[in-house]
Amino acid sequence: MSEKTQEVLRLHGLRKSYNVGLPNEVEVLHGLDMLLARSDFTALVGASGSGKSTLLNLIGLLDTPTAGELFLLGEATRDMDDARRTALRGSAIGFVFQFHHLITAFTALENVLMPLMIAKGKPSRADIDLARNLLAEVGMDAFADRKSDQLSGGKQQRVAIARALVAQPALLLADEPTGNLDSHASDDVFALFRRFNEKLGCAVLLVTHDERISSACDRVVTLEDGRIKGDGVTLAKSGAKPLRA
Amino acid sequence: MWIEWTLALRFLREGRIQSMLILVGIAVGVAVIVFLTALITGLQVNIIDRTLGTQAHIKVEAPDEMNRILPAHAGVMQLILETRRAQRLRSINNWQQVRDALDTLPQVTAVSPIISGPAFARRGEAVESVALVGINVERYTRIIPLQEDIIAGQLRVGAGDAVIGSQLARNLGVSVGDKLRLDAGQGRGSILNVAGIFELGVRELDARYVYLDMTQAQSLLNLPGAATVIDITVRDIFGANEVAARIAGLTGLKAESWMQTNGQLMNALNSQRLSTQMISFFVAISVALGIASVLFVSVIQRTREIGILRAMGITRQQMLRVFLVQGGIFGLLGSLAGGIAGYGLVWVFNHFGPKLFYIPVNPMLLVTSSMLATFTGIISAAIPARRAARMDPVQAIRNV
Question: What is this structure's pTM?
Answer without folding.
Answer: 0.72
